[in-house]
Amino acid sequence: MDPKLKRMASSVLTVLLLLEGGMFSSSSPPSSGVLENIFQHIDLHQNEFIQSLKEWVGIESDSVQPLPHLRQEIFKMMDIAADKLRHLGATVDSIDMGYQQLPNGQNLPIPPVLLAELGNDPKKPTVCIYGHLDVQPAKKEDGWLTDPFSLIEVDGKLYGRGTTDNKGPVLAWINAVAAFKALNQDIPVNIKFIIEGMEEAGSISLDELIKREKERFFSSVDYIVISDNLWISKTKPALTYGTRGNIYFTVEVKCRDQDFHSGTFGGILNEPMADLVSLLGSLVDSSGHILIPGIYDNVAPLSEEEKRMYEAIDLNMEEYQNSSQVKKFLFDTKEEILMHLWRYPSLSIHGIEGAFDEPGAKTVIPSQVIGKFSIRLVPHMNISVVETQVKKHLEDIFSQRNSPTN
Ligand SMILES: [Zn+2]
């Protein structure tokens, strides 16, 4: 629920910064006079931009709940976006993505991915913009102060599900291009869009489409821009040029097929949950340091130059702490916080399948549990090396417990 207007303005700015930047080998960036006109055009048309955002936010394009009526809303959303892109003069391919198989055997259609192209001048670089138009579920009861599916202005800020993630930024890109078009200004880059409607549900089937289009749609792409990220402060726009990777693990401990009762078996078993808790507890210490041997070996060493870059970053710790609603972080300084978010690996424990997680007391001993954790990867960690290190560490810890579970 971030202030929308600022984010929209910033995304437009991002486009313009890119257009101004040093990426043009054979075509020149717009002059400052042109940019002046464009900024003026944006100011004059602000109400129209907000009106479009209002229409988009009003569509409950929730991809997380697998319900047919919500899925239809995403289809509607993708249709409206395709029309808007065509209106820009882009050629739009609406790619059929097949079906999502649900655990109950039901099939739900996956909304199309839009592949759009505007301009194909071989002398210009090609920028591809990624965005998604589906959203997470939202209900007033979740703590929203306004109806999540109406765009509502409070204190000069616009609130509504999807305003920043990610309908607003997609619209901002479209509006930026439209501003160039409206003023009859040559756009110094070829533009492509890839827009999906299943991001919040794990971008189902998107990777296959991208691989399929490698030699066609993506063959001419020089730059990919993703406006689906965070600002670190509320006042300064951020340009993200890299993110950490992620490797996800599950670890299963099993004794037998049926659960036990603590009255009849408690005290004579190596309980799977106890084994799993000790495995999970061996991964990271209370200062956030990962305890898997060798895990930091390949992490790029911190240079003096890099250190100085962190000192120059504008982050108000008090504001950051308040907006995060966390009493105390593992680190006190801005530099340490940012480095541990950006340039060091981290390990997070996410959940236990098979655990008794409902309220109240129950005397069951789960016979089989699956722990879930993930590691955020940084340069120059190697995914298969990390996998081997994690496996070896868990096996070592498990063998120390001398447990007959497996
Ligand atoms: Zn997003």
TrEMBL record:
| A biological-process GO annotation | proteolysis
SUPFAM superfamilies registered for this protein in UniProt: Zn-dependent exopeptidases
Membrane-spanning segments: none
Q: Which residues form the Peptidase M20 dimerisation domain?
A: 241-398
Recorded hits in InterPro entries, A to Z, give: ArgE/DapE_CS, Cyt/Met_Dipeptidase, Peptidase_M20, Peptidase_M20_dimer
Recorded GO MF terms: carboxypeptidase activity; metal ion binding; metallopeptidase activity
The keyword Protease belongs to this UniProt entry's keyword annotation: yes
Q: Keyword set for this entry?
A: Carboxypeptidase, Hydrolase, Metal-binding, Metalloprotease, Phosphoprotein, Protease, Signal
Which residues, if any, are the signal sequence? 1-27
Pfam families named among the record's database cross-references: M20_dimer (PF07687), Peptidase_M20 (PF01546)
Q: Which family does it belong to?
A: Belongs to the peptidase M20A family.
Quaternary state and partners of this protein? Homodimer.
Q: This chain belongs to which protein, by name? A: Carnosine dipeptidase 1
Which gene does this sequence derive from?
CNDP1
